[in-house]
Design a protein that fits this description.
heterodimer, A: 617 residues, mainly alpha, Cytochrome Bc1 Complex, Chain D, domain 2, two-stranded antiparallel ribbon, 28 helices, 44% helix, B: Rieske Iron-sulfur Protein, 4-stranded antiparallel beta sheet, 11 strands
Chain lengths: 617, 161
């Protein structure tokens, strides 16, 4: 009995479900929009023929197939927005609304009739608005899906944008990125933000690290030629604001940018899609060819180097986007105001050609300028040779030291993130009071080789240097210096340099040191991330060669107070073991470092094989 | 759902009648869903959109076609004919084997097998079996001429502009 009732009920449920599915699948919202449009159009129609024609039209998918601009696109937007090209529907509610006419877009008004510059039948819709042209439902067509790369611009999907910049970037502004897909000319008035962004790309020295096809050739950072295709606008925005927000290990500096500048840069980057709709592949090839030719000629056309030209170049090439020079300061890289007293021309030229050849862990990119330009810049920098006139230690510290070592002396000045090795923490009493005073005065005088600490010898008089050292000890260290216990360390390495010694040193190094100093001895061992200050890069030849054996013995046997370097005498290393270690470290750092090509360490073949092969093992 | 079942139960009380009512109801439900399924399959088979260029397209303002013009749009495969203030669209696909035919002095001629048509598209020679079809032409609200290749009209029907 009850089975029959159940069967009847179930069959009815099945019928209803089928009915719902049928309705859902075959009665679309766009059909309703179209029917509504036909009705309204009929009431607006003036002639019978017009009415008759409307009667014959039923709802159907309206699509534009755009073949002239890049890959062909199928835009079905007019299926719902059927009145977009019907001037009688101006001011109606969406979706039955005329697309606004705008003189800025090139539309022309003639005898009261507007004529579009960008006809929908030729250009389609998504070329300007983005979104998913094939979608027939709002959700799909407008790309409201959080994962859709290019949601429809402006009004709808802006709601999904990150709250932080929702108010700062409107869809209309963002749309300029799409104008620039065809209007690639440098001075196109219709896309001022792209213009400004392109300018900023050079003003903020982005070109030094990043490559953009046809614009720049930086190699240090990622290629941005297609960045607009790969990343959504919120990523671009936030990464520009703070490069570490998405990638904690990024060493891209955080530049001084206003909101307007970030907006322009974001829109500019969004416009880099690696394709140009208006050009054929042949045209692109031709443009690339012309660009490389122009570059070659500009490289060969070298003006005679002069200091005047150098000063000009420094502003043109935006050196002060990072460096400090006089009043201009990028808050990222060292102060160049006294460069003429600090470095000589050879050093500057070698550093220009390859910054890592002088400061091995520098993040400064290799700028591919002409040799004559480098000569100009260095001859200008040589003119920066007025010694500092500051009197008191405090004044000197504030003006010359605080930029790296920090106002509080804690080694966290504005530039500290970008300097490797990081500036010394002068407030760390354990370190400061465990080293002899002449070490500090020596570091001030001659600088620390292979790091960004410059020699102040010619900038500051001995008196001034003493004043600033006294200031540091009084203000940051505060505690009185205790009597230093003399450590029993040899002046010279008693172990003779030999292949055997190096080999023994290597074995000890691999057992004891790699946890912090790394298997490549570059100071990037697995523990190094948690250690402050970071372990030394022992392949920084300039630094290693400037350290006498005595200091090596002292640091290894008795440790470095205030750092993570322990006293290895407590762990059973003998003086001879340390001697072997020193020989090993020295073997990786040849005494004379000249051209970068000969930078590879001269090891005995056996050690070389082991050191180099360990990297892959 | 249950409501139509219950009164039937109460009213009759007769087992045979109730059983019949129930079986009618189940049958109606099942056959109904079957029909809907069949119908949706039929609708589904017919494509809603194809990936060719759309068959209804606008070709520009009437001013673009001066009186007396016979302009062949090869990509669209229509010839726009303007005679005074009358406009018409004639197919330029040969009715013989589908070549694109060109406008000649006497009307149209096909380069493939030499079919010839007069000004109105009637066959005057060659292997062509039928006259060229005329398509409906209308004036869109934005003032442009719209050709609808889905709708064929009788030869000699012009749109007045």
């Amino acid at each position: 009995m009850s089975t029959r009732v159940t069967l009847a009920v179930v069959s009815f449920v099945v019928l209803i479900v089928h009915g719902i599915v049928f309705y859902d699948q075959f009665f679309n919202r766009w059909e309703k929009h179209q029917t509504a449009y036909f009705e309204q159009a009929r009431s607006l129609a003036k002639t019978d023929a017009e009415k008759h024609a409307l009667d014959e039209r039923g709802p159907r998918i309206e699509q534009i197939i755009v073949t002239q601009f890049g890959e062909s696109r199928v835009d079905r937007c007019a299926t719902c927005h059927i009145a977009s090209d019907d001037p009688r529907f101006q001011g109606h509610a969406d979706p039955l609304r005329t697309h606004p006419y705008s003189a800025a877009l090139g539309d022309v008004e003639r005898n009261g009739h507007w004529e579009r510059r960008h006809k929908f039948t030729d250009f389609g819709c998504t070329i300007c608005h983005d979104g998913q042209g094939r979608g027939l439902e709002t959700f799909y067509a407008h790309g409201e899906d959080a994962f859709w790369p290019d949601p429809m611009l402006g009004y709808v999907t802006q709601a999904n944008w990150h709250a932080e910049f929702k108010a700062k970037l409107t869809g209309k502004e963002y749309m300029q990125a799409n104008c620039a897909q065809c209007h690639t000319e440098d001075n196109f008035a219709g896309a001022p933000l792209v213009q400004r962004g392109r300018q900023l790309f050079f003003e903020k020295a982005c070109y030094g690290c990043h490559r953009i096809e046809g614009l720049s050739n930086g190699t240090l950072g990622p290629d941005l030629s297609e960045v607009g295709k790969k990343f959504k606008v919120n990523y671009l925005w936030e990464h520009t604001v703070n490069p570490r927000s998405f990638q904690p290990t990024s060493f891209m500096p955080k530049f001084d940018l206003t909101d307007d500048e970030i907006k322009a840069l974001t829109v500019f980057l969004k416009s880099r899609r690696g394709i140009n709709f208006a050009e054929t592949s042949l045209g692109q090839y031709r443009a690339r060819l012309q660009h490389t030719k122009a570059e070659e000629t500009s490289k060969t056309q070298s003006s005679t180097p002069s200091a005047v030209r150098g000063e000009q170049l420094i502003s043109e090439r935006s050196c002060t986007a990072c460096h400090k020079l006089g009043d201009r300061d990028g808050h990222i890289a060292p102060d160049l105001s006294y460069e003429g007293l600090i470095r000589d021309e050879d050093w500057m030229m070698a550093h220009f050609r390859e910054p890592k050849s002088r400061i091995p862990d520098s993040i400064m990119p290799v700028f591919g300028f002409a040799e004559a330009d480098f000569h100009s810049i260095s001859s200008y920098l040589k003119t920066r040779s007025t010694p500092a006139s500051f009197k008191t230690g405090e004044e000197i510290y504030k003006n010359l030291c605080a930029r790296c070592h920090g106002e509080k002396g804690d080694g966290k000045g504005v530039t500290y993130l970008y300097l490797d090795p990081a500036p010394r923490d002068l407030a760390k009493v354990a370190f400061m009071n465990s080293k002899p005073e002449d070490r500090f005065s020596q570091a001030l005088k001659t600088g620390v080789s292979g790091t960004s600490m410059p020699p102040w010898e010619r900038v500051l008089t001995e008196e001034q240097r003493r004043a600033v050292l006294t200031f540091v000890f009084q203000t940051f260290v505060k505690e009185p210096r205790p009597e230093l216990k003399a450590h029993r360390v040899p002046e010279q390495n008693p172990v003779a340099f030999s292949g055997d010694s190096v080999h023994r040193g290597e074995q000890i190094f691999l057992q004891r040191c790699t946890g912090c100093h790394g298997r490549k001895a570059d100071g990037k061992g697995p523990n190094s991330l948690d250690i402050s200050p970071r372990p030394r890069n022992l392949r920084n030849s300039f630094f290693v060669n400037s350290v006498p054996d005595k200091r090596f013995f002292d640091s290894i046997l008795y440790g470095v107070q205030g750092t993570a370097m322990p006293s290895w005498i407590d762990y059973g290393l003998t003086q001879n073991d340390v001697g072997d270690l020193i020989n090993f470290v020295r073997s990786m750092n040849p005494q004379k470092v000249s051209p970068p090509s000969e930078k590879a360490p001269t090891l005995t073949s056996q050690v070389k094989q082991e050191v180099l092969c360990q990297g892959c093992k | 759902m249950k409501t139509p079942v219950k009164p039937a139960l109460e009213e009759s009380g007769d087992a045979m009648t109730r059983r019949r009512v129930l079986s009618w109801l189940s049958g109606f439900g099942l056959f109904g869903s079957l029909i809907i399924t069949a119908l949706s399959n039929l609708i589904f088979i017919k494509p809603r959109a194809t990936y060719g260029q759309p068959n209804r397209f606008s070709i520009g303002k009437p001013e673009d076609f001066p009186p007396g013009a016979r302009v062949s749009l090869d990509t669209r495969r229509v010839c726009i004919v303007r005679d005074g203030d009358k406009v018409a669209a004639i197919s330029t696909t040969c009715t013989h084997l589908g070549c694109i035919i060109s406008v000649s002095e006497t009307g149209f001629s096909c380069p493939c097998h030499g079919s010839r048509y007069d000004q109105d598209g009637n066959v005057t020679g060659g292997p062509a079996p039928r006259a060229l079809p005329w398509f409906q032409v209308s004036l869109a609200p934005n003032g442009e001429i719209e050709v609808d290749k889905d709708t064929e009209i009788e030869a000699g029907n012009y749109l007045r502009v």
